[in-house]
C-alpha cells in the first residue's frame, strides 16, 4: 500500500523542519569570527535562502510565515544569485564584469516587488517576471559553473581545488535542476514526490558540501587574501628547503626576464619553463609566497610594470590597451579590474593623477 497524501505531507513537513534547523545552525557557524569576510556573509545568506525556499514550497510553512513574507520571498528568490556571489567570494574568480552581473539583479528585484504587492505571482506581469527570473537564474548558475571550471588551473589552494568538483556537481546543478523543474511544472506546482525528493536532497547536499568546506583551511572563509605590496617580498630563508630555494631563484629569474608577459600563461606553462613538477611550483607560490591563485601572482608582476609604464614620460602616449596587451592580458577588461583591485583606481586615472601631481610639484 502506498503512502497516503496526508502522511506524505507530514513526512515532507518533518523533513523540511529538520533541514531548516540544520541550515540555520550552519548559517550561524558561517558567521563566526570577526571581521566577517564576504564569503561568510554570502554563505550564510545562501543557507537562509535555502531555508526560505523550503518555507515557500510547503503550504503549512508558507502560511505560518505570512507576517515575514517579504523577507522570505526576497531570500528565496535570491538563491541562484547568492550561489553566484558565494562562489566568487570562495573561489576568488570572476569572469563577468560587475556592471553586467548587477544589471541581471533587476529581474529578481522586480519579481520580489510583484510577489509582495497586490499584483501577486499569479498575475500576468508576475508570470512574465517568473519566467524571466528562471532564465536569468539559470544564466547565473551557468556562469557560476563556467567561472569555477575555467579558473580551476589557477587555484593554488589544494583543498579548494578538490572542492570545486563537488561544488559544481552538487550545489550548482541542484539549483539548476530546481529551476528547470519549476519551468516544466510551474512554481509551487511540483508533484508531491518531486517536492519530497527535492527537500531531502537539499538537506543531504547542505551537509555534504557545507561541512567539508568548514573543515578546510580556515583561510578559505575566515581570512582575507594576503596582499603583496612589495615587489621585493621574500620568504624567510629557513622557510624553504634547499630544493625550494633553487626553485625560488629560478622563478625570480623567469619573472625578472618578463616571462609573466606571456599571453594565456598558466601555472603548468611556467612549471614547464622552469622544468619542475607543477605541484611543486603550486606549493611554493601558495605556501611560501602566500598567493591563493596563480592569476594574483601574475597580476602582482604585471601591475607593477604597468604602473611603471603609466608613470613614464616615454610611454605617456602609448594607449592603455597596448600596455595591457604587452603585459599578457587578452583584453582591456581584466587589466582594468586587476589594476583597480591593486591600486583602487583605473589605469587612466592613475596616469592622470601621476602627471597631474608632477605638474603641481614643478610649479
Question: How many beta-strand segments?
Answer: 0
Give the helix proportion (percent range).
Answer: over 70%
Instruction: Give the overall shape.
Output: globular
- Going by helix content, strand content and strand pairing, the class is mainly alpha
Please state the CA-atom Rg, rounded to the nearest Å: 25 Å
Major β-sheet annotation: none
Count of DSSP H/I helices: 17
* Low-pLDDT residue intervals, each spanning 5 or more residues: 223-232, 359-363
What's the end-to-end separation, in Å?
Answer: 94 Å
List the secondary-structure elements in sequence, H or E. HHHHHHHHHHHHHHHHH
- Average pLDDT, rounded to a whole number, is 81
Write down the oligomeric state.
Answer: single chain
Strand content: under 5%
What can you see in these coordinates?
This protein has 363 residues and is mainly alpha-helical. Helices cover 71% and strands 0% of the residues. The chain has 17 helices and no strands. The protein has helices at residues 5-30, 38-57, 59-64, 69-77, 79-91, 98-104, 106-116, 124-150, 158-185, 192-215, 242-256, 267-274, 278-288, 294-310, 320-326, 332-343, 347-362. Helix 1 (5-30) packs antiparallel against helix 2 (38-57). The longest helix is centred in the middle third of the chain and has 28 residues, at 158-185. It starts with a helix and ends with a helix.
What attributes characterize this protein structure?
363 residues, mainly alpha
